[in-house]
Specification:
It is a single chain. It is built from 8 helices and 16 strands. With about 280 residues, the chain is an alpha/beta fold. Strand 8, helix 3 and strand 9 form a beta-alpha-beta unit. It binds flavin-adenine dinucleotide and FE2/S2 (inorganic) cluster (FES). The site of flavin-adenine dinucleotide has 22 residues, from strand 4, strand 6 and helix 2.
Length: about 280
Amino acid sequence: MIEKTSGSLPNSVPKILKGKLIDKVWFTPKIVRLKIANHDLANFSQPGQFVNVKVTDNYMPLLRRPFSIHGVNRQEKWFEILLQVIGKGTELLSKYQIGKDLDIFGPLGNSFSLPVRSNHAILIAGGLGIAPLLFLAKELTPKNFSVTLFWGNKTKEAFCSLEDFEELGLCYFLATEDGSLGFEGKITELVELKKENFQKSNSVIYACGPNPMLQKIKEFAHQSQIPCQVSLETIMACGFGVCLGCNVTSTNISEVYKYVCKDGPVFYSSEIDLSE
Ligand SMILES: Cc1cc2nc3c(=O)[nH]c(=O)nc-3n(C[C@H](O)[C@H](O)[C@H](O)COP(=O)(O)OP(=O)(O)OC[C@H]3O[C@@H](n4cnc5c(N)ncnc54)[C@H](O)[C@@H]3O)c2cc1C
Ligand code: FES
């Protein structure tokens, strides 16, 4: 079931921009939030979009690295990314000092479509999948949507940004795989346990996290007849539709693939095959 939506707000043309790193907050030894000053990205980015950041002035790593826009402050002209150190590129970026100028391409990709008929948004995040969902929650709450967050992590230390959700006053359910906070188990199990709440309300789902989690959420949404948008991550090279490296299998018989950087990263779960 696909609900008609208002569609994304008109997205601005992506540009290569300079952004100054103005603040850094470490949540764990591997997770850091970077606040970056840039007028255009603060003004025009929409929830779901991402930026492609050059991580070094040298040649290695050569390719830019993609990060979801985690939040914006349109008055103060800054935006944030939430970064998990995975390999060389994220390590270099995480080590930049405040005051450093960054080379950023964006805003890229489409954005989440806001609900039209529904009044209850269910946000489901696995790990760093929370990154685009905080921005979405900040967009939804002033528009009087009721927002429920489900967020799962391996351990309690990874719940960065929880105060931001608390400030928004929304209802949330947490799960940890080691049982150190909230429900013990995977977030998809908690969603199943709470499914009665969803079916009673006029809900839409927005999810971001690892593909196996998204596949389970897709099945859940299908069985429960709840419209579901998912934000995908793939390995990317160009970030703007040229290299065709970010393909995911389409469920539309008239095409084989969709491309995460130009058709996404946000898709209706029915549009893509997540079972691989
Ligand atoms: C649209 C989009 C939004 C993203 N948003 C965020 C975000 O908000 N915060 C964040 O921390 N990360 C985000 N990522 C993932 C981030 O881009 C990668 O972690 C980063 O590019 C890794 O670079 P690296 O040089 O540190 O690691 P590399 O040395 O390039 O890779 C290290 C290892 O991680 C694997 N890997 C790299 N990228 C990915 C990926 N996208 N998915 C699965 N495995 C990968 C590689 O195969 C390799 O095994 C996003 C990715 C996409 C496509
Ligand atoms: S990353 Fe090159 S086409 Fe998507």
